[in-house]
């Protein structure tokens, strides 16, 4: 993946997820950050730390981003959610406006 | 997100943190040496608002934050923006206004993103204006409200200077007039009431003055050339900096002052009016006359009246010629009718 096309999302435990920018933009908050006037265009530190999102949840969210893009492209599959993750997932989704 | 473990942020504390971000933003806008926002800055500011809005009552501070959001703009505008605008005049004031408006839009964009969470639920729940609208309204109610008259006058003055042949900064005017449009947030009311109406009035007065001089000094063809040139220039003006919706209204004013008002005097000018042009077969001038007068209501009525008189007179003369010739057996009637027909083509 080219540097310009990727972002790095870092969980509370420090786990780094490098994903496509397009996927990350499924989150309105991340999208806003990446399209704000000025700073981020040329910046190298296209990385965001989420000290309040655990690794498990962040991983699930990244999976969701990709699933969402596929769904939008017509590939209508189910997105599996383990019941024990639901509450935290909902909160994280609300936080990230996803 | 582990909400139960989260420490409650107290309003004063949380706001102090936000204030730092807002100050940083203002410094950036003022051009001071201030590093840009990092993604970490961004997330922390967003998260602070998020937390303060999702805390359990009585620590749910959405209303207070919504008010403080607006107050941030009001404070900046009254302490910094308005004073800098008040001390400038004419073209300098226009330049400063354009700069401040651009800055304001950037400020709205950033702050509304930090405070974004309020847009998600709070504003809908209370049927309040969204953050973007609040931000723009602040500028409108504080800056625009105070200065739009001065701005309008400065713009019209520049337009009249350009009419007199001076070079003006057209891009500047376009930017200023864009403000009148944008401040309406979808409605053209501000542009129409606070600028266009006065501009049209000034235009009418300008061309009325010009016409009253030209009608005395110029021949009909010369006057028409000037009128056509003026219409062309005004149309050009619209395409460069006026809003497109002004075009029909503007041209109507010019046509009225230059053509409708003086139609009779112009057409009946003794040595150069419509009759003379027909007589001397001045096709180019007659075409111009047709083009110009066809645009005004009933504009061609006097023209066609004179034309009818002319044809009748010419026709009658030719018929008489033919009668005379017929009696001399020199030119047949059959010859004269084609001549008349050719003439009318």
Automatic annotation (TrEMBL), chain A:
Keywords: Nucleus. InterPro entries: ELC1 (IPR039948), SKP1-like (IPR001232), SKP1/BTB/POZ_sf (IPR011333), Skp1_comp_POZ (IPR016073). It holds the Pfam family Skp1_POZ. Its main location: nucleus. One of its GO terms (cellular component) is nucleus. It comes from the Eukaryota. GO terms for biological process: jasmonic acid mediated signaling pathway; ubiquitin-dependent protein catabolic process. Pathway: Protein modification; protein ubiquitination. Residues 6-66 form the SKP1 component POZ domain. It is found in: Nucleus. Belongs to the SKP1 family. This is Elongin-C. It comes from Salix purpurea (Purple osier willow).
Automatic annotation (TrEMBL), chain B:
Residues 23-327 form the Cullin N-terminal domain. It comes from the Eukaryota. Gene3D superfamilies: Cullin Repeats (1.20.1310.10). GO terms for molecular function: ubiquitin protein ligase binding. GO terms for biological process: ubiquitin-dependent protein catabolic process. Belongs to the cullin family. This is CULLIN 3B.
């Amino acid at each position: 993946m080219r540097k310009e096309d990727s972002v790095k999302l870092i969980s509370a435990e420090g786990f780094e997820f490098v994903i496509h920018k397009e996927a990350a933009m499924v989150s309105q908050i991340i999208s806003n950050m990446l399209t704000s006037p000025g700073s981020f265009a040329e910046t190298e530190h296209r990385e965001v730390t989420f000290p309040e999102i655990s690794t498990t949840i962040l991983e699930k969210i990244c999976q969701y981003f990709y699933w969402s893009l596929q769904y939008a492209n017509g590939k209508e599959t189910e997105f599996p959610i383990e019941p024990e993750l639901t509450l935290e997932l909902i909160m994280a989704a609300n936080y990230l406006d996803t | 997100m582990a909400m139960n473990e989260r420490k409650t942020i107290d309003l004063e504390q949380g706001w102090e943190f936000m204030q730092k971000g807002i100050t940083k933003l203002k410094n950036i806008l003022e051009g001071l040496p201030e590093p840009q926002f990092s993604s970490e800055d961004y997330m922390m500011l967003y998260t602070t608002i998020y937390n303060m809005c999702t805390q359990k009552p009585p620590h749910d501070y959405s209303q207070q934050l919504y008010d403080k959001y607006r107050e941030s703009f009001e404070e900046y505008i009254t302490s910094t923006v308005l004073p800098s605008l008040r001390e400038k005049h004419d073209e300098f004031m226009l330049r400063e206004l354009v700069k401040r408006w651009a800055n304001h839009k950037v400020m709205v964009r950033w702050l509304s993103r930090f405070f974004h969470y309020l847009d998600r639920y709070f504003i809908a729940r209370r049927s309040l204006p969204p953050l973007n609208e609040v931000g723009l309204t602040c500028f409108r109610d504080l800056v625009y409200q105070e200065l739009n008259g001065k701005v309008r006058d400065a713009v019209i003055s520049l337009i009249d200077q350009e009419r007199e042949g001076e070079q003006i900064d057209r891009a500047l005017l376009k930017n200023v007039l864009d403000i009148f449009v944008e401040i309406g947030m979808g409605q053209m009311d501000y542009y129409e009431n606070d600028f266009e109406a006065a501009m049209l009035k000034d235009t009418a007065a300008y061309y009325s003055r010009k016409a009253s001089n030209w009608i005395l000094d110029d021949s009909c063809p010369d006057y028409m050339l000037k009128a056509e040139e003026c219409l062309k220039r005004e149309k050009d003006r619209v395409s460069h900096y006026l809003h497109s919706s002004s075009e029909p209204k503007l041209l109507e004013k010019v046509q009225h002052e230059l053509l409708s008002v003086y139609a009779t005097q112009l057409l009946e000018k003794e040595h150069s009016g419509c009759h003379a042009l027909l007589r001397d077969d001045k096709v180019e001038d007659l075409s111009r006359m047709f083009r110009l007068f066809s645009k005004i209501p009933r504009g061609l009525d006097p023209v066609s009246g004179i034309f009818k008189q002319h044809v009748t007179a010419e026709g009658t003369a030719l018929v008489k010629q033919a009668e005379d010739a017929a009696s001399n057996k020199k030119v047949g009637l059959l010859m004269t009718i084609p001549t008349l027909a050719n003439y009318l083509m």
